[in-house]
Design a protein that fits this description.
single chain; 424 residues; alpha/beta; Purple Acid Phosphatase, chain A, domain 2; 2 domains; 8-stranded mixed β-sheet; 7-stranded mixed β-sheet; 25% strand
């Protein structure tokens, strides 16, 4: 999304917010001091008072916990009551040291035995925000092959898409959505079959372009990304330039080489042997029955050289062509959107995969928006990721997976043929 410049007003609002959180934590501790435990479990559930039906409810912020604490337990984050050292918790819980979602040391009343098991044994809430009908995701036929930094081969196309992942305000590294993106990559790793590779649609940071917080935020992202063992191919977002949608970075461009741009190149592109923020990855069937190219367009590092590269790359015949660009066709103030769309219209392609807006939707006949990777949501849909899967008839289907439950949104599914036309 468009960068909101830092200002004195924002800093005052942030200060007030921190004080409010501090007051909530203090109130929870006072309650703990009086009776050994914070509000009862029935009041500590992400869905509201009285809605808890299992040991702990999944959370991403303590504000969801109605007086409790959103703590990191067993690799995930859950609402649990606060406690004070030496004070007894309820009989089926014990007071243990933990870390909350903001990295603060806390003491919480944790269920004895199973750390935080929900009704399905995972600790996850039975439903995600903004969705009703859900079903377990079926990945389909097994996938064999290998896709590394230089591309590779696969028995069928099957990959994950991760959207925008950044804190809500500039340089607010303590609020980086680490729990969300960690859970997303853990779910991708756990899929059966596991995707051979993943792509990301940009905006990994929200930091002053000439400061140092961008590099720190990218390190947090990379730490979470380690939960997935496959190769990640990243697209560049506007926040990897200056943060403004109309920014243009790189040598010779209006915004030059910012620290955020440099950090993006060194931390996300260098590991996959890419020197430029625009690049091509080729994948094919072992028996040569199909070929695919993934073209990563950097709309915020647009140059004449990139235009020439894109024209030549799209002219190369392949069965499938995927365009990955941070901004969708409607965000046409980004320098590279209009010219890249013009090139795309002159060539066949299967699907454009974009981010920028913090939700997910089918944003065009051949465009899917996946921007719900942890950045503040802009609609009612939950955080999560997409899966693109090739079926036996050659069509590719797009599904969305909820990050809290790991289940598919059964209200979202579409399939396209290799030429981009709708498949049954």
């Amino acid at each position: 999304m468009e960068r909101i410049p830092g200002s004195t007003v924002w800093r005052h609002l942030l200060t007030a917010f921190v004080l409010l959180l501090s007051g909530a934590s203090f109130a929870a501790l006072v309650s703990c001091a009086s009776d050994g435990e914070a509000p009862p479990d029935s009041a500590i559930a992400g869905g509201g008072a009285g809605s808890a039906t299992f040991a702990c409810s999944f959370c991403v912020a303590s504000e969801q916990c109605h007086g409790g604490i959103c703590a990191q337990l067993g690799g995930d984050t859950y609402c649990v009551p606060a406690c004070l050292e030496g004070r007894a918790c309820r009989g089926d819980r014990q007071c243990l040291a933990a870390t909350d979602v903001r990295g603060n040391e806390v003491r919480v009343c944790v269920p004895r035995g199973d750390v935080c098991a929900g009704p399905d044994g995972t600790g996850a809430a039975p439903r995600g925000r903004g969705s009703t009908a859900r079903a377990a995701y079926d990945g389909g036929a097994p996938v064999t092959g290998f896709v590394g930094p230089s591309g590779g081969s696969a028995s069928r196309l099957y990959f994950a898409v991760v959207g925008d992942t950044r804190p809500p305000t500039e340089d607010d590294t303590p609020s980086y959505p680490l729990a969300i993106i960690t859970r997303i990559y853990a779910h991708i790793e756990a899929l059966s079959p596991r995707p051979l590779f993943a792509i990301s649609t940009g905006d990994y940071v929200f930091a002053a372009p000439r400061g140092t917080e961008g590099a720190t935020q990218l390190d947090l992202y990379l730490g979470a990304r380690k939960r997935y063992s496959g190769t990640l191919f990243p697209a560049m977002g506007n926040h990897e330039c200056t943060g403004f949608t109309d920014s243009n970075c790189g040598i010779g461009n209006a915004d030059g080489v910012t620290n955020n741009f440099t950090a993006f190149v060194s931390k996300l592109l260098t590991p996959i042997h890419q020197a430029e923020p625009y690049y091509e990855i080729d994948i094919g069937a072992p028996n040569g029955t199909w070929t695919a190219k993934l073209l990563f367009v950097a709309a915020n590092a647009w140059t004449a050289s990139q235009a020439t590269w894109l024209e030549q790359a799209m002219s190369k015949p392949t069965t499938y062509t995927f365009l990955i660009r941070h901004e969708g066709a409607s965000a046409d103030t980004a320098p590279g959107v209009k010219p890249s769309e013009a090139i795309m219209r002159s060539h066949p392609y299967t699907l454009a995969i974009v981010g920028h807006s913090h939700t997910y939707e089918r944003s065009g006949a051949r465009e899917v928006l996946v921007g719900n990777g942890g950045a503040p949501l802009s609609g009612s849909k939950n955080y999560g990721f997409a899966v693109v899967s090739q079926s036996a008839d050659g069509a590719v289907a797009v599904d969305m997976i909820d990050y809290a439950s790991g289940l598919a949104d059964t209200n979202f599914h579409f399939a396209l043929r290799a030429d981009g036309t709708a498949a049954p």
